[in-house]
Design goal:
Blueprint (H helix, E strand, L loop, with lengths): L3 H34 L8 E3 L4 H7 L2 E7 L4 H18 L6 E6 L4 H6 L7 E6 L2 E4 L6 H9 L7 E3 L2 H11 L5 E5 L7 H6 L5 E5 L4 H6 L7 E6 L4 E5 L5 H11 L4 E3 L2 H4 L9 E6 L5 H15 L5 E6 L4 H4 L12 E5 L4 E5 L10 H14 L2 E5 L5 H5 L1 H24 L9 H13 L9
Parallel strand pairs: 1-3, 2-3, 6-8, 7-8, 11-13, 12-13
Antiparallel strand pairs: 2-4, 4-5, 7-9, 9-10, 12-14, 14-15, 15-16
Length: 440
């Protein structure tokens, strides 16, 4: 049995340890609370730099960062839109915080985050960055970013809930509506493709909804892409492989007008691109051809179909050996990088019987009756970043002109009467042995 002295000593020792622990907590309390108090969720745009960037990224689950340059015109236009969007996004649950970094001033921080042009926009989700290519108007930007904090799968219990969901989703992302499906069927895919699409399952719906979305049995997965006025229906099989193939194909519209923005949709798509080059994609002839191509695309979902007008983007189409003398429309199959293929005898499309000519082109491609070519211009990613390249070139040209102007002002003044003799006298006096400094 322990003696009273030992028991008292033991209690005293425990008491001392508790006191020391409490004192330690009191000393550390200011520093523990400092990181939390460093940022306020007040609906204003945070200003980040080298000293607080990492802390902000770790503090907020969702933070949208604008890497800008003070002289950048696009950045100046964007700033007030971010100010308007900030309080809207801060009110979400969970909130999205908007922040900005002066990438010119904090170049190491910008370089670390892969900034190569202005503005560069990224959303950090649980510390993981994702490039942002969406709209920049405050209301549209807020709607677009809401996607990232929405549930992986939304459960809809009525016709009105279905309609409200589709309306709130907007037009920037594809929307998948499951009918007669359990959410467990698509939960894995919805988490995987959350950044690229909206996913939902309707638990309660009427025949009016079936008529609206044009499906006649369940289970069914309806895909709609409001931006391109497209809709398709998948009736199974609902094994994950087949389901994922359908989802991936539906992330890109049946036929895509090729431009700076639409190319971004193709960055992660491994399919070949059937590219039709036209004189003017807005002409009546082109519109008729686009309808034919859309029908062909629906029967060839293993390929992406796109079109571009020489008038709309001549720099791009010239990479495929197209100029003003080329007979258009012209069809090629592009791998999205440096290679493309022309089909023997079927690369151009005449105005009569377009459908048959497109079918022959696809048959020739699948049979391997092709000639492989190497594009003469930038790759897909180069075209995406070409605006940045143009800006850098213009800046370089401006600096070069300024330097030439400065050098021209530093030239010797023209000789006037007496100038030559005066300059010779100066040179002779400088070179005269009598005027040189002597060494001690």
């Amino acid at each position: 049995m322990a003696s009273p002295v030992l028991r008292i000593y033991s209690l005293s020792s425990i008491f001392q340890h508790q006191v020391l622990y409490l004192l330690l907590l009191l000393l550390l309390a200011p520093s523990i609370g400092a990181s939390g108090d460093q940022f306020k969720l007040d609906g204003k745009v945070l200003e980040l730099d080298d000293s607080n960037f990492d802390a902000a990224i770790s503090t907020f689950d969702y933070i949208f960062v604008d890497f800008y340059a003070p002289w950048c015109g696009h950045c100046k236009h964007l700033a007030p839109e971010l100010d308007k969007a900030a309080p809207i996004l801060a009110g979400l649950n969970p909130p999205i915080v908007i922040a900005k970094v002066d990438a010119e001033k904090y170049r190491k921080l910008a370089s670390k985050n892969g900034v190569d042009g202005y503005p560069t926009l990224k959303i950090f989700m649980h510390g993981v960055p994702t490039e942002y290519y969406g709209p920049r108007k405050a209301n549209l930007l807020a709607r677009y970013l809401t996607k990232f904090v929405a549930p992986d799968v939304s459960i809809l219990n009525s016709d009105s809930a279905v309609k409200e969901f589709v309306e709130a989703a907007g037009t920037d992302f594809p929307i998948f509506l499951g009918f007669g499906l359990n959410e467990s069927v698509i939960i894995n895919l919805s988490a995987k493709y959350k950044k690229k699409a909206w996913f939902s399952v309707a638990k309660g719906f009427s025949e009016d909804i079936m008529s609206l979305y044009d499906f006649d049995k369940v289970p069914a997965l309806v895909s709609i892409y409001p931006a391109y006025n497209e809709q398709s229906i998948f009736y199974g099989p609902f094994e994950e492989k087949f389901l994922e193939d359908y989802v991936k194909q539906s992330l890109v519209p049946l036929i895509l007008p090729i431009n700076q923005d639409s190319l971004k949709l193709l960055r992660d798509d491994q399919r070949k691109i059937v590219l039709t080059i036209m004189e003017d994609e807005m002409s009546e002839k082109s519109e008729r051809l686009i309808k034919v191509l859309k029908s062909a695309a629906s029967a060839n979902r293993d390929l992406v179909f796109g079109y571009v007008g020489f008038k709309q983007w001549d720099d791009f189409v010239e990479s495929f050996e197209v100029d003003k003398k080329t007979q258009l429309p012209k069809m090629v199959v592009w791998d999205g990088n440096e290679e493309y293929y022309i089909v023997n005898g079927s690369d151009s499309v005449e105005e009569t019987d377009m459908g048959n000519q497109v079918s022959k082109f696809l048959e020739g491609y699948r049979e391997g009756s092709v000639i492989q070519k190497h594009i003469s211009g930038p790759t897909l990613m180069s075209f995406i970043k070409s605006n940045i390249g143009v800006k850098i070139f213009l800046i370089f040209l401006f600096v070069l002109l300024v330097m030439i102007l400065i050098l021209s002002t530093m030239k010797d003044e023209p000789l006037t009467v007496g100038t030559r003799e005066q300059s010779e006298d100066k040179r002779s006096s400088i070179s005269s042995p009598g005027n040189t400094d002597k060494e001690d």
